Amino acid sequence: MRRYWNARPCNIRHSPKQVGTREYFDEVEARKYFVEPHIPVFAEFERWKGKKVLEIGCGIGTDTIRFARAGARVTAMDLSEESLAVARRRASVFDLEDRITFHQANAERLSETVPVETYDLVYSFGVVHHTPHPRNVIREIRKYMGSRSVLKIMVYHRYSYKVFWILLRYGKGAFWRLDRIIARNSEAQTGCPVTYTYGRRTVRELLEGFVVESTMVDHIFPYSIAQYKRYEYRRAWPLRWMPDSLFRRLERRWGWHLCVTARIEDLDSGESR
Ligand SMILES: C[S@@+](CC[C@H](N)C(=O)[O-])C[C@H]1O[C@@H](n2cnc3c(N)ncnc32)[C@H](O)[C@@H]1O
Predict the structure, then answer these.
(1) Does domain 2-158+195-264 have CATH number 3.40.640.10?
(2) Whose CA is nearest to atom 26 of ligand 1?
(3) Model-level pTM?
(4) Average pLDDT of the chain, as a whole number
(5) Which of 2, 6, 10 for mutating ligand 1's site (highest number of atoms within 8 Å of CB)?
(6) Residues with a CB atom less than 6 Å from ligand 1
(7) Over 70: is that where the pLDDT of 105 sits?
(8) Every domain of the chain and the residues it spans
(9) What is the pLDDT of residue 163?
(10) Which CA distances in Å does 66 have to 47, 48, 142?
(11) What is the pLDDT of residue 272?
């Protein structure tokens, strides 16, 4: 896994400018939230001003910076040293080093590296489904949460347009090999070793010991890939002719991102999922 993410940190080509410059980071951020506008809605960056945020799998730090810029104190970790090097550089370019502590670690064994303390928010966007044993990560995350802490986690949605498209395009309909085919084709760079997908029921099973407060499905990547690589945004067939209102309805039903907000189960109050 580490080799895969080191070879191409997530979103590293979101700008053609020189990696590590302010212009590069500004363009990465603009592209990320243009293509995935539901992220700020889900993360609620401003809400965490003055709070402690633990980010699992920060990648090159796009959301990390947004939390810090909004006034949060952030502990951010990732498996990939290459991603962390870019994220650290980013913190320094924006003069946010004093707000962010970075750790290189495996989230499945988080507490061996990141000191255990209670955070207001534990946030993980697009990470847990890429690790071989997601339940281990959830068990570790729980150690960093108190009764008032919030968990916000995005995992890939099994009942999505993207899975349907992968199955048709690469799987020739071979749904019995679906998990392997999804992993191979889920990311910008092919060959991701692990990608699990979840439905609303299975993500609740994953989040054992948590109370799920809300789930939200969003995001269909609509652009023609060849043009997207040239930083041009033109919807691909068959989405090109679709009215925006219908496209949004489709995203909310068959989107690729299953965003879940949860808290730890309060056994004293008898609260349960
Ligand atoms: C799809 S990227 C998402 C990065 C970032 N959250 C974002 O939204 O831009 C997945 C990230 O998860 C990290 N990752 C995968 N498995 C991990 C693990 N077991 N522990 C820590 N990080 C992990 C990868 O190194 C990679 O940076």
Answers:
(1) no
(2) 59
(3) 0.95
(4) 93
(5) 10
(6) 1, 5, 10-11, 57-59, 62-63, 78-80, 83, 106-108, 125-127, 130-131
(7) yes
(8) 2-158+195-264
(9) 92
(10) 11, 10, 24
(11) 45
